[in-house]
TrEMBL record, chains A, B:
Keywords: Amino-acid biosynthesis, ATP-binding, Diaminopimelate biosynthesis, Kinase, Lysine biosynthesis, Nucleotide-binding, Repeat, Transferase
Binding sites annotated in the UniProt record for substrate: 47, 74
Function in brief: Catalyzes the phosphorylation of the beta-carboxyl group of aspartic acid with ATP to yield 4-phospho-L-aspartate, which is involved in the branched biosynthetic pathway leading to the biosynthesis of amino acids threonine, isoleucine and methionine.
Protein name as it appears in the record: Aspartokinase
Record-level Gene Ontology MF annotations: aspartate kinase activity; ATP binding
């Protein structure tokens, strides 16, 4: 008998039929002799509906009241799923975030889990019943409701799996697992049987939106065995674990991220500390800088180029324009029409031909590379957004086939 | 400076405009220098929507999961009202039932309040802000959510007013107060400036659905000064208190209740204990018996007639038919086409002409009386349902004018 945590997202519990579909998966797992803790998100459009209600009233709601409002979403879905489970003859009890012991810090809307107090979870699971936990939410030391921010339910599931030392944490989605590329873009994309935490982290960061990054980091930290699989198609998914089998394939995936903008600060002083000043300024405003390119100095000046998430572009350009004189720069340029394409795979640093294979594939397809960044397990290039899908296909063809 | 509890029902907070209307009332009260605790119900159709969701899944949901589901309704409305208050520049904080200290017994869907732990309420109200409490809900000793059943938000408001020793508990509704009769039935119905708890209780029981009975009982027990008033029309409402001023009018109201059925058990043995047996049988099934008429015994038998709520008629008739032999009865008859009409007013027992005035009014309008019941502060008659509105008008004319 194993303890399995199963997480279902909003579309998986969107309506009556979907709820019964989920209830059947859960009941089957329980009937097979496992202890099961289920984590659910709010139903389909519930969160959007609640946000719309708040938006009618104010565009400046306090984080505390937004959390109070939004937490109602999972409260509804977790009780409904328990009703569906009971209807299938499977005993079940719902627990809100605070009832399940989720203690967080005081940050509303993006709270961090401090700990999961498992006393009640252990008590309820000991009664031979399924426990359905409202994901995404917790409580702070002041007894106020908090929410965990984007991808919060994935994080809830992994946190429970870690705290309860579960044998497996299954993240059910609407895809069958982690693919070598987005199947909507690359027809030949292959499902991976296994992937390592680090590879998954790079893929998640790079825009493969299967698993939230925070949940992968947490899983890695507590060595929680993850499985990404489909709630609609009952086939094995992708296992995420510390070290993945090599599968004769070094490259685990090709990802693209179109939500990036390129910014250049032109002709700044070519003296020590300039890059530090520019990027610390952005860091103070919580703007994450990704790819960075610095031109070779000439005539005592150089250009500094980098990418930021598209949503931060406006703020970054305004800030830099305002402070431009501090760096002696002559102007700030930006370009929203770019995309980042990356190959990810552990072990690529010991294979010198990965980069050249990637660049060759792009060259053969007449795609211009604007910036390049490499890490131990990935190579990213910035290209024109219009070339993104062509680039993903070309790179996938070169590495995976 | 006074502490005022204000309760707003579901229709008062149904949408954006209604929420801002409520927020303005609350902010005005607060700005006038009062401490304000607000109790809200779920928005307009939220509860019905949630019940429909559950109904799609099962017709036999556990009380615990229904409470979990329904409690989301007030969670939504209380956070939205806080946002509206903030938008008006009035600081506010929302508290769920359990955060506001509502400890209940273990009965789901109709929990009784055991106590209100006012520690947090006192702390938050001390911060010069409005506290908005989710009505209708609490928590039991097992840390599970409970709901208080019908009219629960009224009860929540009165319980807070009692526990916090509030100076006034205002129940906002869509009528301007308590009337001498239903204004939709009697054009000349007058709003009462004051009414006593006992009179209000009789009126509530008799179908004047302004205030829930449980909340009036609670207010009487803890001497909470109540005011019933309109959230749409800012005029003084009706004060409910221990002893109401006489106002030169002995009769406080004329009420009708059409949700009654008459049942007769024919020719039961005319021996001691028969009435006890019949009514204890009904009491075991939680069927409330109201007006009772026992015919004069003849030939060793008598007929026993009484009224029950229409919703209990089927169960009562089935039960009595099944057990008929125990009383020696020859049959069970029922009639759903009846209505109860009552006059209510403290002091009427010392005025012998109340009954005769009432009967005369009915006689002059050719309305037949089928059963009569009197108490210290009311006289009720059972008549044909088709005559109910005519009877209410005739009696109102005779007493109030």
């Amino acid at each position: 008998m194993a303890l399995i945590v199963q997480k279902f997202g909003g579309s998986s519990v969107a309506d009556r039929d979907r709820l019964f579909n989920v209830a059947r998966i859960v009941a089957d797992t329980h009937n097979a002799g496992n202890d099961v803790i289920v984590v659910v998100s709010a139903q389909g459009d519930t969160t959007d509906d609640l946000l719309a209600k708040a938006g009618e009233i104010t565009c400046d709601a306090s984080g505390r009241e937004m959390d109070m409002l939004l937490a109602a979403g999972e409260q509804i879905s977790c009780s409904l799923l328990c009703m569906a489970l009971s209807e299938l003859g499977c005993r079940a009890i719902s627990l809100l975030g605070w009832q399940a012991g989720f203690i967080t810090d005081r940050n509303h809307q993006r709270a961090r889990i401090r700990k999961v107090d498992t006393e009640r979870l252990e008590c309820e699971i000991g009664k031979n019943q399924v426990v359905v936990v409202a994901g995404f939410q917790g409580i702070n030391r002041a007894d106020d409701l908090t929410t965990l921010g984007r991808g919060g339910s994935d994080t809830s599931a992994v946190a429970i799996a870690a705290a309860m030392k579960a044998d497996l944490c299954q993240i059910y989605t609407d895809v069958e697992g982690v693919y070598t590329a987005d199947p909507r873009v690359v027809g030949k994309a292959k499902k991976l049987a296994e992937i390592s935490f680090d590879e998954m982290l790079e893929l998640a960061t790079l825009g493969a939106q299967v698993l939230n990054n925070r949940s992968v980091e947490l899983a890695k930290k507590y060595a929680v065995r993850l499985e990404v699989l489909s709630s609609l198609n009952p086939v094995p998914g992708t296992i995420v674990k510390e070290v993945a089998a090599m599968e004769g394939m070094m490259i685990k995936g090709v990802a693209k991220d179109e939500n990036v903008s390129a910014i250049s600060v032109l002709s700044v002083h070519d003296v020590p500390g300039i890059a530090f000043k520019v990027f610390s300024l952005l860091a103070q405003r919580k703007i994450n800088v990704d790819l960075i390119l610095q031109s070779v100095g000439r005539d005592g000046t150089k250009d500094l180029s980098f990418t930021v998430p598209s949503t931060d572009r406006k703020a970054a350009v305004e800030l830099l324009t305002e402070q431009l004189s501090r760096f002696g720069g002559t102007g700030v340029q930006y370009d929203d029409g770019v995309a980042k394409v990356s190959v990810v795979g552990a072990g690529m640093q010991s294979h010198s031909n990965v980069a050249s294979t990637m660049f060759e594939a792009l060259y053969e397809n007449n795609i211009n590379i604007r910036m390049i960044s490499t890490s131990e397990i990935k190579i990213s290039v910035l290209i024109d957004a219009k070339d993104a899908n062509k680039a993903v296909n070309a790179i996938h063809e070169a590495f995976v086939g």
